[in-house]
Amino acid sequence: MWDLISNSVYASILLSIAIAIIGSLIVINKTTAITGSIAHGSFGGIGLAMFLGSSIILTTSAFTIVLAIILAFITIKFPHRKDSLIGVIWAVGMSIGIIFLSLTPGYQSDALSYLFGNILLVENKDLIFMGIIDSLILISIIFLYNRFLAMSYDREFLTLRGINANMLYTYFLILTSLTIVMSVRAIGIILILALFTIPALIAERFTKKFFSMMIVSGILGLVFMVGGIIISFYYDISPTPTIVIIAGVALILSLLKK
Fold first, then answer.
1. C-alpha distances in Å from residue 12, one per residue of 85, 208, 232, 246, 248
2. Residue pair 87/37 in contact by the 8 Å Cβ criterion
3. Which residue positions in the chain have pLDDT lower than 50?
4. Of 47, 228, 248, 22, nearest to 130 (Cα)?
5. Which of 35, 142, 159, 164 is deepest in the core (most CB within 10 A)?
6. If you ran DSSP here, which 8-state letter would residue 107 be given?
7. Domain edges within the chain
8. What b/e sequence results for 28-46 when a residue is b if at least 16 CB atoms lie within 10 Å of its CB, and e otherwise?
9. What is the pLDDT of residue 121?
10. pLDDT computed for residue 254 by the predictor
11. What is the DSSP string of 185-233?
12. Quick one: pLDDT at residue 44?
């Protein structure tokens, strides 16, 4: 059994680190819609990579970073219309991916695997990329913890300190975009948003400090993923929806507690 699911467990551990940090920042900064836009828009990068025959990881990373910068510009410059513009980026990104896939010769069955994900099919190269992005996230939160905290709760304080809050916000969205790329193979574009926000939403209800929220969120994400992997293995069902259902049930139960 361990030989079959070992990579998926390693992936769960690496993903839980990103869920702990980026997921918590997504929730407290209320950037769920933006994250969803980047996640679905990343399909454009996948379609482009398949059309060009290039590396899906590298091409999609570059594509999503561009999306993150565009979305940062939109939310900063057009705050009153950001909800509509975020939806436009969401749709345009996916449309680009569909067009490139239609122009690619042959049947691209791999495209569906990126839409729905399968953590049991994670390869060693995926784990290496996850480790690299996790390292970048950990270094960022260690050196920029107070700045991220101020960005989330009091941007005026950052401005008074002479720190460019917009630049920091853009960097946060770039980290989010890279986190999405490292997750698409395991979780899938459609379900990424749920897995990154549910643990943080639960953790927020039972913690008072942001650091504690990150720790609890990461632990919950790991428990949900490992639990989903084990259930899917024994009952021969798709792992990613199983993980999300477990997380959803946990969220409902947490909401029932006063």
1. 33, 26, 14, 15, 17
2. yes
3. none
4. 22
5. 35
6. -
7. 2-11+18-190
8. bbebebbbbbbbbbbbbbb
9. 84
10. 93
11. TTT-TTTHHHHHHHHHHHHHHH-SSHHHHHHHHHHHHHHHHHHHHHHHH
12. 94
Show the tokens assigned to 206.
């039972």
- pTM, two decimals, is 0.93
Answer yes or no: are the C-beta atoms of 181 and 42 closer than 8 Å.
yes
Predicted local distance difference test score (pLDDT) of residue 258: 66
CATH code linked to domain 2-11+18-190? 1.10.3470.10
pLDDT of 118 reads 85
DSSP 129-156: HHHHHHHHHHHHHHHHHHHHHHHHH-HH
Q: Judge whether 112 and 188 are in contact, CB under 8 Å.
A: no
Q: For residues 80 and 140, give the distance between their C-alpha atoms in angstroms, rounded to a whole number.
A: 30
Distance in angstroms (rounded) separating the CA atoms of residues 243 and 15: 13
